[in-house]
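notes to self, project folder thing:

trying the whole complex as one job this time. last attempt i did each chain seperately and stitching them together was a nightmare. two parts in total, labels are on each line so i dont mix them up again. if this works i'll redo the older ones the same way
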Amino acid sequence: MSKTRTIKVDYLARVEGEGGLYVRVNGDRVEEVRLQLFEPPRFFEAFLRGRAFAEAPDITARICGICPVAYQMSAVHAIEDALGIRVDGALRELRRLLYCGEWIASHTLHVVMLHAPDFLGYEDAIRMAKDYPKEVRRALDLKKAGNEILRILGGREIHPVNVRVGGFYRVPTRAELAPLVDTLERAREQALATVVWVSTFDMPDVEQEYEFVALRHPSEYPFNEGRLVSNRGLDIAIRDYDEHFVEEHVARSNALHSALKARGAYVVGALARYSLNFDRLPPLVQQAARDANLSSVCRNPFQSIVVRAVEVVYAVDEALRIIAAYEPPAHPAVDAKAGEGSGFGCTEAPRGILFHRYRLNADGTIADAKIVPPTSQNQKAIENDLRRLVERHLQLSQEPLTRKCEQAVRNYDPCISCATHFLRLQIDRHE
Amino acid sequence: MAASIVIVGAGNAFRRDDGAGLATAGRLRGVLSGDIRVLVKEGDFASLLDDWQGADAVVVIDATSSGSEPGTIRRYDAHERPLPSTFSRSSTHSFGVAQAVELARALGRLPARVVVFGIEGRDFTPGEGLSADVDAAVDEVVRRVTEEARGRA
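result (full assembly):
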């Protein structure tokens, strides 16, 4: 007779937001895996209706305290698409620079403070810091470099206020960006050292058959522009997103579940971006990845910690490139005049593609808005990973299996505040 | 010699009473002067360690949700004991004021004096504005922080 086993853990920390996880195992079969996002629906889309188009970047930036730049970037690109505006040259480069700041700060927080303790067997970063003070101090300095970019370019570190449709309210002078160079050169060494450090972690040996979805640009590692591509043939313009993706309400979650209409679950974020765009990374970054034993495609979700560390090297290096070439534009923004239209924007938030769609009225107010955050898109993949993980490790006792599940969820750096706030984890296993 | 003081209001203004620390910082800006920096922190509490760097004294004000009477004010000296778990953010940011204080302690980066005020909230639902009893408590904390800062500055 098969027996149902129950493992219960009250909550999973070190993720952004409130949610839970339930796994039921009957004998040697995983019967049910549910990622439950408890956070109340955020109603931001409804809140945007009737507001002026110019307010969208600042309103949507409030959805997340960790990736506000992503919301601002997707919002401005979508609205500029609706208004037929194109932002090029130095303004476009400054937007990439702003995104570099967010990637550095967000990835470093997750890699060192939230995810590394899993690999080294610590309950949290504070206990880890007592044994690894050098690595933690280095991470805090690195993260500060990212925050410096956000402060100088965004007006402040959290919820930057300098971004507008068409460009910026004020652009920096060369002299204002100059102090960043020393900071970022030091940060590049710190980022490279962080890659070496995390590459020594003991990695579970698992490979998953994912469909990765990310932006792909003709020449750049993607931030703000490109086509949406996958390793299974998807290659579409951003404006065709709704034809290929569907968002479904699932009773257990307050966040809509995304799926590819043709094939279901897919993965967005660092692993997808890296695996679809390795050839777009500069030689220094490719070499750092190779030295860390990463191949050009990475299907081991646990290695996402190394991939994020590699992306931090990229973001620091790219920021230095942009600052070196920077010549202030004649105007801080391209004029944006109200008009009717629909626009689509998709940018690479630290956690993956963030899609925005707006329909504007002739007076420039927002008639309709749709926002699809990366964590909503990864929910199915997280559940699939957990199912396989529990199946593979049924022999483990409650505590180590639970720790592995928590680690597996954190592979995705889930931001539940974005998707719909602590993650409660419960595994029911009867035996 | 005047001491450098950093005052940090922490919280989320869009979760009603979770904005109590931010409101306190806002009101303190109007009454404090001298070598005192008043900051607000709505996320990314890890960067508190940078904000503290070089400061002789730090005062942090944050909302609490401990189940006690809304508007209750608590004062903690971080050098006396670890902060209670109510300062571990259970909302948007899993890295809260308590973690920042403990991380700083672990790394030897805790300023010589760290005082944390907690204001018990009533309503943490999405939206703006403070409950009346929490609003009154904010005024009282403004008065107490001003007194402490003037005593040291």
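what i see at first glance: Chain A touches chain B at residues 13-18, 40, 42-43, 62, 64-66, 105, 109, 113-114, 124-127, 129-130, 133, 136-137, 140, 143-144, 147, 157-159, 417, 421-422 (CB under 8 Å).
need to look closer tmrw
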